[in-house]
Amino acid sequence: MTPTLAGRWQTRTFLLSCIGLPITLVFGFLYDNFSTPLVLLGYVWLLGLSWDVGYHLLQGLRWEGDWPPLFFGLGAFVEGLLLWGLVKAAFVWQAIGLAGLPGVDPGLTLAQFGAHYATVWLVTFLVMLGPLKIFFLKWRFRGGQLW
User: Fold this and answer.
1) pTM above 0.70, yes or no
2) Which domain does 21 fall in, by range?
3) pLDDT interval class at 98 (50, 70, 90)
4) Nearest residue to 19 via CA among 39, 45, 1, 49
5) What is the overall mean pLDDT for the chain?
6) Which are the contacts of 48, defined by CB distance < 8 A and separation ≥ 6?
7) Based on the structure, what is the number of domains in the chain?
């Protein structure tokens, strides 16, 4: 299946809403801070929408027009590094008096961020590879569009 840009956006929004949100709430409970994980999930969604434009263009250069699953993992790793870089840069900005990344707790550690980000990504990826295709039979024939 070669996803369309609209299909990428719909799939990302659906998976982060239905799968990522409950996982994020569990992490909010574990960390005793619901706002930071929820805000990070929002940043993942926003970054993902912009990344999808680039992914879509790059995918068009491949002769079969599709990504191997390894590329999903590499893309997630780069996306996670970028988001953590923005979080750390925001902490530096706040230390010198500039506005940082809104909504992110300055006490967030790399371990907390990594556990949350990796769990959300892994579970949504696995749902996309399996159950999504079972419950939305025409998903792959519509270029990833759910509605």
Assistant:
1) yes
2) 5-142
3) low
4) 45
5) 85
6) 12, 16, 79
7) 1
